[in-house]
């Protein structure tokens, strides 16, 4: 009985605590059998308390007539009312104090713990609801609060399921099921929870199946089928699939279509196979959204086009177009599979460009540029050979630099040292050609110095101007052979000195011939002049004199023949004159004059013969005419 009273006090206290601004109203029931106490809000309807009705047996006074009976009635009523009020105040004074739910003890009475569980559940928070249900699970079925607690558990389970449903509506199936599974199987609402989870799983499987087919359609570019599948999602009874997922799928289809369009446009550029168009194709394919299914294909194409760029770079490199090779390799993007190889091509090409400066520092830089190409690179062997080439070029350049420095002293010994240094460059080395060129130049310098010495010696020998000194000078200068630097200059001096020598040797002969000619002995003069050989210094002068003398001789010899021919012509004997003049042979002094006369005489003779022919023809014509007329006369007779 005491325990029930305490439970009653707890329930009453809870109701009193749950509202503020309430006042206690004690109402006397006119019914003599019961009286009750109720709590009423100023603004809310009356709520009957569970206070047990205090029954008061009051006997109806018998009307004995008169004032004493009425007085006794009112006195009894006042005494009963006073007792009721006193009992109510006593009950209020004995209500237990409110439990401290912030620091509730595990050993606190179940009434206090249930009260705190209810208060926590009223916050509407998931963790508080779960705590409340956990407490209720601990109550044994025979507990006086068990029935009331199960009712609370059902309401709290519904609230928890609401949290789970919200998770499912957000697209978190695992989260929804995890929350729903926290509702204990002892809950009166558990069958509905289990049914709801099965609905979620079925709905989710349907949505996932449609979504899977949708993504397959996107991968295969079946846009119409994908649109139909989006419509199928709207048939699902879930805000997540019907609203959010549909919008996501529409956006994804738009993204995929744009991505395919970008890739097709990029492929059109790449079909032209030029480095510029390949670079444009790579850039356009790189803009394909990374979340699209097209992205792997776009990246594969970018890798393929990057390989094409490297082929172009290799072709240009083979043609020694190093700047062009660099340009093509630089177009390979950093995310391409051959990017590292492209960087190696750039290093190799830049090395060759730098090496073209052809100095010590450029070869040092070029060699360093290819040194860090990895042994795993396809260009490693090329880079290794190139580095070796630059090292050899550097070594050759050092030799050449030293040789050129020594050669600047411009002395035969210095030139010879320079030649020895340059000769150390092997025939297979790139600097061999330059070395040989400089060696030839330095040898020419040595020879020129030697030739200058010989020529200077020759000119010193020729200074006296005597026949012997001039011949000695010619002999000395003749030591400068064909192909030597001062050969032409030496030959010029030799020609001058030879002319002087020949003049000194042939002048007496020419003077003798002229003296004989003056004396009239032309034949002896000719014989003397013929002793001067062709190519000698006085040969032209001797030939001129000799020609004059021969002309005089031939004229003297042929003039009688020409005179005889003229005489015959004067007599009219033109044929005899022509034959006589023909005796003068070709090359003789009077040959031209004779041929002129022959031409005149032949013309005269031809004219005479023509006149005679015409006269004969005329005479023959007259004779023929006379004969014909005479015949006609005889015929008429």
Note down, in words, how this protein is organized.
This protein has 637 residues and is mainly α. Among the domains are: 2-61 and 82-93, no CATH class; 266-415, no CATH class; 431-537, no CATH class; 540-626. It has helices at residues 2-18, 67-93, 110-121, 126-137, 146-169, 173-180, 190-219, 223-233, 239-270, 275-286, 294-318, 322-330, 339-355, 360-369, 380-407, 412-423, 432-462, 467-477, 487-518, 522-529, 539-570, 574-581, 591-636, and strands at residues 23-27, 36-40, 47-48. The protein has a three-stranded antiparallel sheet with strand order 1-2-3, with no helix packed on it. Strand 2 and strand 3 (47-48) form a beta hairpin. Helix 8 (223-233) runs antiparallel to helix 9 and helix 17 runs antiparallel to helix 18.
Strand order of the largest sheet: 1-2-3
Low-confidence stretches: 1-71, 84-95
- Assembly classification: single chain
Shape: elongated
Number of strands: 3
Strand content: under 5%
Helix-strand makeup class: mainly alpha
Helix content: over 70%
How would a textbook summarize the main sheet?
A: 3 strands, antiparallel
Whole-angstrom Rg: 72 Å
Mean pLDDT across the residues is 75
The run of helices and strands is HEEEHHHHHHHHHHHHHHHHHHHHHH
- Count up the helices: 23
How far apart are the first and last residues' alpha carbons, in Å?
A: 216 Å
Keywords: Membrane, Transmembrane, Transmembrane helix
Protein name: Chromosome segregation ATPase
Organism: Funiculus sociatus GB2-A5
